[in-house]
Amino acid sequence: FAPQKGANERQVAHLEEGLVRFAAILEQAIEMPGLAGARGMGAAGGSAFGLAILGADIVPGAALVCDRTRLDDVLAGADLVITGEGRLDAQTARGKAPAEVAWRSAIRGIRCVAIAGAVEDPLPDLFSEALALGTAPDDIPGALRRLEELAEQLVSSSPAR
User: Fold this and answer.
1) By C-alpha distance, which of 95, 99, 94 is closest to 83?
2) How far apart are the first and last CA of the chain?
3) Rounded to the nearest 5°, which phi and psi values hold at 106?
4) Is the dihedral of CA 138, 141, 144, 146 positive or negative?
5) pTM, rounded to two decimals
6) 28-51: pLDDT as tens digits
7) Are 89 and 4 in contact (CB under 8 A)?
């Protein structure tokens, strides 16, 4: 997710090279070859890799959070779900929380709208609609006002029960 955080191609390559080297050294030291290549090891900035070394069971984080917060219970009877993140792009569909929320909404036939700081890819197969705040990243008060406006528009346009 480094490009989402502002890293350019050169920086991504440099970060990847360093992390691959670091992981290889750790795998050798703890005698767990191939651990770094296992599914989910890069999650949360590599936290999963460190936790796996300590013996933790690694499970998809977005699904775990949705289960633990009882999202499915909250969705019962909902007409509209609003979710979001800083930047909506192709990476969103690869295990991020808004994608999990959208999937759980879709199987219940609930309209799911994503609101993001920036929308690079609207992911129409995932979200009913994707809206960008359209504010500068450091304009928190402006982003909050815009978020409130968009939420009010969405709620007022949603059919009443």
Assistant:
1) 99
2) 39
3) -60, -40
4) negative
5) 0.75
6) 888 888 888 887 777 666 788 888
7) yes
